[in-house]
Known about the structure:
This protein is mainly α. Helices cover 69% and strands 3% of the residues.
Amino acid sequence: MIIKAIEKQNVVDEVYDQIKSNIITAKWKPGDKIPSENELCQMFNVSRVSVRSAIQKLRAVGIITTHHGKGSFVSPSINESILNSFIPVMNLSEQEFLDMMEFRETIEFKCIDLAVERAEEKDIQQIGQALQKMIANKDDFVKYSQGDLEFHFAIVRASKNELFLKLMNAVKDAYYYYLEELNRVFGVNEESLQGHIAQYEAIRNKDAGKAKELIAIGMEENRRKIAQLKNHF
Length: 233
């Protein structure tokens, strides 16, 4: 079995790739039980959130199955050609993702500037409540995405600009679908959680520049992942 400790960048993808590699090379054969979450955390030197997100991605494409109370197993009848065909399907085009990111950069960045100037304590609390929903649902990408949407809408509301809020409401469904697709395909990871926590702290500390920088870093990473998705395997 080939296992390497993982550096703290692109952690979920690295865990995903190493588990998949061990299945392709028959270190873990069809029907085999893979190590427990705790064991994988120790083997890879990563957090439980990262391991769960990687397993969620593997389960979503049918590479492994999970049985409550028993653990996760390599799916039966898996071979290398089948594995290499299991590319997560994005239900939005690359251009649709990029369009939404450009919209966010135009609207949300200005809303952050305004929120830092105008937010009242109740506004900061609403952002924090949305963040807590994300943290509580880090193992459920749908509920996590709902909290993610609430987080960004709370920032827009804190800007006290009704026109910006109307614009966001007009694209609310598309925005949610964009977030859900990102979290479904790439998994909820530690970097996403920590990034949102840092964004919240920056806004609470009235540091608009830091908050915008953090969002920009997250979106740039998403751009990279989307562009490389078709070559991921």
